[in-house]
Structures are given as structure tokens and as C-alpha cells.
Amino acid sequence: NAHIFPLDLAAVEVPSING
């Protein structure tokens, strides 16, 4: 999931917007 947080717990599947 793409969030605007640098370290997003939901970004395990896809890289977040801010990295």
C-alpha cells in the first residue's frame, strides 16, 4: 500500500510513496 510515510508498515507489499 502506498502511504506518504517514509517507513510504512503497509508498504511491505509495495514501496511507499516516500520510500
- What integer value in Å does the Rg equal? 6 Å
Q: What structural category arises from helix and sheet content?
A: little secondary structure
Helix content: under 10%
Q: For the terminal residues, how far apart are their CA atoms?
A: 12 Å
Portion in strands: under 5%
Number of strands: 0
What summary fits the major beta sheet? none
pLDDT < 50 runs, ≥5 residues: none
Tally of helical segments: 0
Mean pLDDT across every amino acid position: 59
Envelope shape: elongated
Instruction: Describe the oligomeric state of these chains in a short phrase.
Output: single chain
Can you give a write-up of this model?
The chain has about 20 residues and is largely without helices or strands. The chain is elongated and about 15 Å long. The chain contains no helices and no strands. It comes from Polygonatum hunanense. Keywords: Chloroplast, Plastid. This is Photosystem II protein D1.
Which characteristics define this entry?
chloroplast, little secondary structure, plastid, Photosystem II protein D1, 19 residues, elongated
Per-chain topology:
Blueprint: no helix or strand
Structure summary:
This protein is largely without helices or strands and 19 residues long. The chain has no helix or strand.
